[in-house]
Amino acid sequence: MNSALESWVDDVAALTKPSGIHWCDGSEAENGRLIDEMLASGTLHRLNQQKHPNCYLHRSDPSDVARTEHLTFICSREQVESGPNNNWMEPGDAKRKLTPLYDGAMKGRTMYVIPYVMGPLGSPLSKVGVEITDSPYVVANMRIMTRMGDPALEQLGEGEFVKGLHSLGDLSPDRRFICHFPETKEIWSVGSGYGGNALLGKKCFALRIASVQAREEGWLAEHMLILGLESPEGETHYVAAAFPSACGKTNLAMLIPPASQKGWKVWTLGDDIAWLRPGPDGRLWAINPESGFFGVAPGTSSKTNKNAMDTLRANSIFTNVAVTPDGSPWWEGIDGPVPEQLTDWRGKPWQKGSSEKAAHPNSRFTAPARQCPSISPRWEDPQGVPISAFIFGGRRARTAPLALQSFDWNHGVYVAASVASETTAAQAGAVGVVRRDPMAMLPFCGYNMADYFGHWLRMGTAVEKPPQIFHVNWFRQDDQGRFIWPGFGENMRVLRWVLDRCQGKGAAVESPIGMLPATNAIDRTGIEVDDRTMQELLSVSKDDWQKEAAGAGEFFAKFGDRLPAEMERQRRALEKRLG
């Protein structure tokens, strides 16, 4: 037993005063016992076991249904280290504020010790964490999302681990905090049982703490999907892609090529997080640190993402979805007609035509990645896979073209750092507002984002053959507000152009904002996209882009003199090219 772990568990038990301590071994028997206990207590509800074997529903407290960015803190010693992109709390203040909330918080509850590995077992790229929690629901989800239990303890040995302390507390939003301590690699979370606030391996460790470790150790921890593209000749290339929410990230990770793309295959390696390290061959190699998908349910259907629907048919946990009379999970956008009656996400009767949504808009499924029909044969390769391209993107009605390639690495970092997306009805506040979300990491970077841009610039020289950098926009609209690119599986056509460019093929034309596909460079056989439509998809308005450059400048100004000079140099060069 790791001596540091043992003494930490003793300290936490003395503070939280649980009725018992359970060290999780990750076994089937343990999982079965926990599920039976949760069914008996009403924490879980059994779904239709014929249609959805080993699937269960959890309803969270109505005040605890989403990530809480305003209650999420980076507790670095110096405020400047945390940056304007994060809420900051001085570490001593944070511990003085949270310690009383943990005092006796586990009375009458079991304290679970969850050792887990982020990344494939035995991989030199993976890392060990330990989460202490009083929530059996967290244990069941961590078993799907990570490699958990005895194998993690074996991998840990006497090594170092990220400490995560979690308690449901009394679930009061007034006593809810998610604190990250980058210098000591600790996470303290109290007052929430929801997803990323409670499954501390996910955004807390795999992005906020890991991004700090990555900067210290010379690698990247990114909010990125990873997929493999296999050509009809049997050659596979891997890309990693980052998108803000509501931009089709999971759909792209599990894309099924349309019949027109004969012989092409898409392999899923990850839908959310990528850890990338320089390899001995001068390329960046990536692993998915997770072993499951924690996906947004609403909008997921056989039409939008058949592979996701097939993945979650068994051995999955659903959170805050509605339930049909026959005990099947249901949400807005799922296949088939809307039932006349449902039980809504709060457990109340729901009638068709009700103004209230039956499933919570942020309802989720937790499903094992190994069940995904498109899961890559290399998804657990301990060495990872070599990345040929980084793809960034957002949801823009007119400004951004369908696709562009950066001129070089530094320009690519600028493109990624100035990523913006227009808000949708799924987000709070007004629709159509442009929000900057650099590398789709704004809520997840565990330190000052100006330093993060600097780290990205350095990574371009840390490897001999860095990935090519692209930007895509599937959401371009015409004057009537209709999408002009068919999207979904047809995005395969754009991915093929990306691969061509990575291999020195594929026609492109220079524009002020980057290299654009030539009019016929993207295969259009079998889709109704004529030359005129393609020109519209690839058009670049100088007026729009001058506003875009000004908007990026306003965003960068928040970082003051900490911003790398190269970022402003790239922005001014863009303004100059726009004339």
What does this entry look like structurally?
- The chain is of the alpha/beta class and 579 residues long.
- Helix content is 29%, strand content 23%.
- It has 16 helices and 31 strands.
- Strands 1, 4, 5, 6, 7, 8, 9, 10 and 11 form a 9-stranded mixed sheet that branches. Strands 12, 13, 14, 15, 16, 17, 25, 26 and 29 form a 9-stranded mixed sheet that branches.
- Helix 2 runs antiparallel to helix 5 and helix 15 runs antiparallel to helix 16.
- The protein is globular and about 70 Å long.
- The protein starts with a helix and ends with a helix.
- The relative contact order is 0.12.
Feature tags:
globular; nine-stranded mixed beta sheet; 579 residues; 16 helices; alpha/beta
The radius of gyration computed from the alpha-carbon positions, rounded to a whole number of angstroms, is 24 Å
Largest sheet: 9 strands, mixed
Coarse structural class: alpha/beta
Helix proportion: 25-40%
Number of strands: 31
**Number of helical runs?**
16
Give unreliable regions as ranges: none
Inertia-based shape: globular
Mean pLDDT: 96
Q: Which secondary structure elements does this structure contain, and how are they paired or packed?
A:
Layout: H1 3-16, E1 20-23, H2 28-41, E2 45-46, E3 56-58, E4 72-74, H3 79-82, E5 87-88, H4 91-102, E6 110-118, E7 127-133, H5 136-145, E8 147-148, H6 150-156, E9 162-167, E10 177-181, E11 186-190, H7 195-198, H8 201-217, E12 220-222, E13 225-230, E14 236-242, H9 249-253, E15 265-270, E16 274-278, E17 284-287, E18 292-296, H10 302-311, E19 317-319, E20 322-323, E21 329-330, E22 341-343, E23 349-351, E24 364-368, E25 385-393, E26 403-405, H11 409-417, E27 420-422, E28 434-436, H12 449-462, E29 468-472, H13 491-502, E30 508-511, E31 514-517, H14 531-537, H15 542-557, H16 565-578
Parallel strand pairs: 1-6, 3-19, 4-5, 4-10, 7-9, 9-11, 14-25, 25-29
Antiparallel strand pairs: 2-3, 6-7, 6-8, 10-11, 12-16, 13-14, 13-15, 16-17, 17-25, 18-24, 19-24, 20-21, 22-23, 26-29, 27-28, 30-31
